[in-house]
Design goal:
There is one protein chain. This protein is mainly alpha-helical and 197 residues long. The chain has one domain: Heme Oxygenase, Chain A (Up-down Bundle). It contains 8 helices and no strands. The longest helix is centred in the last third of the chain and has 26 residues. The mean pLDDT is 94. It binds protoporphyrin IX containing FE. Protoporphyrin IX containing FE binds next to helix 1, helix 6 and helix 8.
């Protein structure tokens, strides 16, 4: 029997390949900021998360995107970020300006945001050194009740299942890269000269 062809690469896999350098620079930037060194630095990190997840709330609530990805609205971690800020007695900043992009490009932004939940396992562990957990201060980094991996696989399946034109596919890639760029910009704005990278 001839070998069967390799399975076509899924969309999320392509987004991962296209944005892996961006991921690594963001990862390096976050580590350079030492966000878990003490609660003051963690508070700054929460401001970054507030800016990023807050800017995506409109996409998580978008009707078209919720048709494409049923249950999307429930995935936003913005309310949990706000609750974490509240736990720590931080003033909640104003609502960030919304990312407003067409649905194909939004898939790239959402890929970045949802994928950040995977690496968050490592970040969540670090928050324990600050006396924080899923019920206080680190809610938004806690795993989904289903577990991170299962939750991620379900999201990937939804995103991979959308039929897009070639141009829309390229838009999704641009969205993912723009999302990492956006995160980097928030990091620089909040941590500024406290960054050595
Ligand atoms: C110090 C900070 C970070 C570390 C150490 C880190 C680490 C990781 C690790 C280890 C994975 C793979 C997990 C797995 O496959 O089980 C991952 C995946 C991912 N992370 Fe991060 N991450 C960090 C920050 C971020 C941030 C801030 C974002 C987004 C703004 C992000 C977006 C993603 C995405 C989209 C994936 C999924 C990649 C894929 O499999 O397609 N990460 N991260």
């Amino acid at each position: 029997m001839p070998p069967s062809p390799a399975p076509a690469q899924g969309r999320c896999q392509r987004l991962k390949l296209a944005s892996s350098r961006d991921h690594d620079t963001v990862d390096t930037l976050v580590m350079a900021a030492r966000p878990f060194a003490d609660r003051e630095r963690y508070a700054r990190f929460l401001h970054v998360q507030h800016a990023f997840h807050g800017s995506l709330l409109g996409l998580y609530q978008d009707a078209t995107l919720n048709r494409w990805l049923p249950g999307l609205a429930q995935l936003s971690r913005f309310a949990a970020v706000q609750a974490d800020m509240n736990d720590l007695g931080l003033g909640v900043p104003p609502m960030p300006a919304q990312v407003a992009v067409e649905a194909p490009k939004a898939l790239g932004w959402l890929y970045c945001s949802e994928g950040s939940n995977l690496g968050a396992a490592f970040l969540f562990k670090q928050t324990q050194q600050l006396g924080l957990d899923a019920a206080f201060g680190a809610r938004h980094l806690a795993p989904h009740p289903q577990g991170r991996a299962l939750h991620w696989r379900a999201f990937v399946e939804q995103v991979d299942g959308q039929v897009l034109s070639e141009e829309e596919e390229a838009q999704a890639v641009r969205g993912a890269i723009a999302a990492f760029d956006g995160y980097r910009a928030h990091m620089r704005q909040v941590f500024g000269d406290a960054l050595d990278a």
